């Protein structure tokens, strides 16, 4: 089974999301999203918000944690317009002016060909980041252009599989050159409707760990961390979090 | 039915043994045939015809395989032997349907490298990047 990254999926939840509050801290991890250390819960006051799952905020928290743990750089790949429209919320203990944030390199990519070029040329870098995060991975693949490129109705699926394989190869190459404590992790994130993402058959071939976000009845969000072994999901860990007062907040963490 | 993860672990062990001796014994082939079925025969034909090239970049050392298909067009597929091939069989039979552990081109690449029947090609790092960007 190829070693590789983790996949974060958010279930698209239409409607309102109440707020709670906590404080995030860092926790070591490899090949998966880093879960914040638990903090004592604070009183919550429900506030209605348009559809937000906090996915990008979680990814950014992972970037901060990883940069902090390793003293290395992190590459955050996303769509620039989308990020400007919905910037991530930081946890309250993160200083927006901190030097740490300068080690998170933002890379704005519009489509999957940009990702392909980046990982195809990965070996040209003299040093490698300790994490690469790709937000809204699925949105990089447009049906029409993929079908046109591959001359196949399943062009989008083909493109995704090839891109993931290329990511896997690039990361494996980089990790051959790195010290153990500075290994490069890959974290991909996407949003889907319903219980089972259609593209899980592609994702599980190249990732070791699947993290799922879904809204709960109180308006907070549950992050589940499941390792993938063969065709089965293994052990699960859970964190409950929310967005409150434009901050990322952890409520509960269970292992 | 053996889980894919177990099958792959067994296959990896066999590849390592073949690599260390630079030859595949009847026992090795028997195990590989059990795991891969007819794709093993197809792979051995590709290797016998010299259809496997390993493209390595200098000075980085990053590499991939180019494996010739069995059709008349003699198309070459980019192969990361452990986990991917650009042929349609890999996508449909391995990824989509899960009917095979890997395609014949992946097997051919593993076999050719293990027995030393790979044609080595060296390119620059920039050239390798260009080739991979066309994946």
Automatic annotation (TrEMBL), chain A:
GO terms for biological process: double-strand break repair via homologous recombination. GO terms for cellular component: Shu complex. It comes from the Eukaryota. GO terms for molecular function: single-stranded DNA binding. This is SF4 helicase domain-containing protein. It comes from Ensete ventricosum. The lineage of its organism: Eukaryota, Viridiplantae, Streptophyta, Embryophyta, Tracheophyta.
From TrEMBL, chain B:
InterPro entries: Znf_SWIM. Keywords: Metal-binding, Zinc, Zinc-finger. One of its GO terms (molecular function) is zinc ion binding. PROSITE patterns: ZF_SWIM. GO terms for cellular component: Shu complex. One of its GO terms (biological process) is double-strand break repair via homologous recombination. Residues 65-114 form the SWIM-type domain. It comes from the Eukaryota. This is SWIM-type domain-containing protein. It comes from Ensete ventricosum (Abyssinian banana).
